[in-house]
Amino acid sequence: MPFAPVLHAELLKIRTLRSLLGALAAVLVATAAWSALATADGDDSDPLYSVFFGISFGQVAAIAFGTAAVSAEFRGGALRLTLAAVPDRGRWFAAKATAIALPALVVGLLTGFVTLLVGRAALGASAPGWAEGVRGAVGCGLHLMLMALFAAGLAAVLRSGAATLSVLVPFVLIVSFVVGDLAGGVADFLPDRAGQVALHSTWEGALGPWSGLAVTALWTAAALLAGGWSIRSRDA
Q1: Do residues 48 and 128 touch, judged by C-beta distance below 8 A?
Q2: Would you give the DSSP letter of residue 53?
Q3: What is the pLDDT, as a whole number, of residue 177?
């Protein structure tokens, strides 16, 4: 089967599963809401990060989206039915990843620009400039998409939504910050921290806004390659 109809089928799955649509909505709500609370405090030490503070919570929803989109295939024999229609496992997984990336990017960019507008309104004169803000909004969208794909790749390896979330959610909410305090600059290369460099006005580490996103993209590519290998080499 050609790639286009496989992609269409995977996009249809996402549109018809309420849990996935709810996770996408949560990306926008969580990011914008927590950012609004942060900017209300009036901390202008890093105005750009104040605007996008909520991404730490929005990325949890993005992780939940990527995880649920893949782990659903391992419940009730769904993957066997899918592979009966699309025997080429590599093509199917590529379509699945694309079907996750497209809505995650659209929602991520929407989240970035909505959050930017809310943050600029709240900060007033201390708000970041438009050029810096647009960079942050685009970085926000790309980071959220990459984290959703990172979770999707790990879910394909672990074959369990609960196992994937039990690894990633504590990692991005707790472990990453603890490691950051202990390991210094090494922690800047963790997937969730590297991508967020684009959301800071200034950064003292080795990474810049786009090189940080590139590091997160490398983590994501590794997770997807591992997930693709798992799909191709293990029984459905």
Answers
A1: yes
A2: T
A3: 65
